[in-house]
Amino acid sequence: MKMKRILTMLSVLCIAGISLTACKGNGKPSGERKTINFWYHSADTVTDSYFKNLFEKLNKEQDKYTFVYTSFAFADFQDKFQMAVTTNTLPDVVSLGFNNITTFVAQKSLLPLNDYTSQIADFDKIDKSLLSGIKELNKGTIYGIPFAYNQEVAWYNTGAFKDKGINKAPATQSEFLELCKKYADRKNGKYFYSMRGVRPYDSMLAWLFTYTDGDGYKGSWFNTEGKCILRDDPFAEALDTYANLYKKNLVSGNSINNNFSEVVAEFGSGVSMYIIHNSSSEPTHRKNLGEGNFEAARVLANDKGHYFASGLQPNVYCVTNLGGKHDYTGAFMLLSYLTNAENEGEMCHAVGRIPCNVDVTNQDWYKNNKNMMLYASYLTDPDYFQIQNPYWLSDFSTFITDTMTADFQAVLLGKITSKACLEKWADMIDQYQTEYLQEK
Question: 27 falls in which pLDDT band (50, 70, 90)?
Fold first, then answer.
């Protein structure tokens, strides 16, 4: 697994004759620095640039620790982390996606933080509802500190819309489908929409739940009998409708293999003029299209005006479990530094994410950012429903990344029906849920 970037600030050893003496850091005496390793789980050029500058600053501001930043592409991270578990080479601090937590908790590679919260400087400033979500995953135990989350939104190319005479972004799925039909130009490789065929779960689930109005369960995957609702007939119709965008050549032929970067590249190069992705892609759109040439809009609603998107899934910073006798002081110093309002605010501003430290909402950049106001408006809109993905299931992370990708691609290729696909998914979720309840 190839690391994308490693930032290492090595301690300076001052040698006089044959004697090793203390070196100076910012004018203060210091012994040899202790190395604290941090791994970031889902890097791109924007996040790498931010963390590189942050770690350089942190290493200059103190002389006790050398904080080392290592980043990975999301697709590489889980295997690399598992290898570190096996070889006993875990870093001290790691970032994770919300859906990874239960997987790593199950193998006891994360440190429970309940007894350490006093060592996290801004712990009482972390959004209480997001912390509650972390606790609910693991029966009250805190295994990570939320630091930023993404809101699912639509992005559209304002110049392309103007050229085509499209006055505004589609508000409903029905309007969206009409635009996909009207502006599909296969001959010239131009389309209204870019579909994601690899790790499609957020956008696809939003489509399914919105199309079916959540089957009447307001975002839950389970009915009143505790069974997964995806096997119900309305979901098959919803998936058929979505898959037909590919089958009828209303999106690019590359869509089946499109991951995040390919979807954003199609949007940025003019292959498409509208995508559904989360807030984190804003810096890339700015780079590809230029400021003022794209806008964010609310995700698609159904004809009732209701719209569904995956529930808040904050990224988290975790301390790895290196044993009860291990000295975690440096890890908690880094964790405090990463989650304070100043640094979290700078990160969210740089990478287009929504802060979890509530003090960031008082910063001028946040209050003056119209997109942040759009994201915040979801939470007070009675027509918005959060899809309550069952992240408490330890197999759910693999299910949404691997199983959903393979099966969705099979549906697009006509190898299996939407009905068969959804029945398989429902059976798997029911089995995971049964096992989970048996363990409680």
Answer: very low
152-311+393-439: which CATH topology? Answer: D-Maltodextrin-Binding Protein; domain 2 (3.40.190)
- 155-193 residue pLDDT tens: 999 999 999 999 999 999 999 999 999 999 999 999 999
Phi, psi of 153 (to 5 degrees): -140, 170
**For 294, phi and psi rounded to 5 degrees?**
-150, 160
Q: What pLDDT, on a 0 to 100 scale, did the predictor assign at position 12?
A: 31
Q: Nearest to residue 264, comparing CAs of 300, 241, 294?
A: 294
Q: What are phi and psi of 69, to 5 degrees?
A: -100, 125
Q: Are 314 and 98 in contact (CB under 8 A)?
A: yes
Best CA proximity match to 95, nearest among 65, 113, 70, 130: 70
In whole angstroms, what is the distance from residue 423 CA to residue 405 CA? 15
CB half-sphere exposure, 436, CA atoms < 13 A: 20
Domain boundaries 34-150+313-380, CATH class: alpha beta
Domain spans in the chain, listed from the N-terminal domain onward: 34-150+313-380, 152-311+393-439
pLDDT digits (tens, 9 = 90+) for 239-285: 999 999 999 999 999 999 999 999 999 999 999 999 999 888 888 99
Q: Does 34-150+313-380 match 152-311+393-439 in CATH topology? A: yes
Backbone phi, psi, residue 157, to 5°: -85, 110
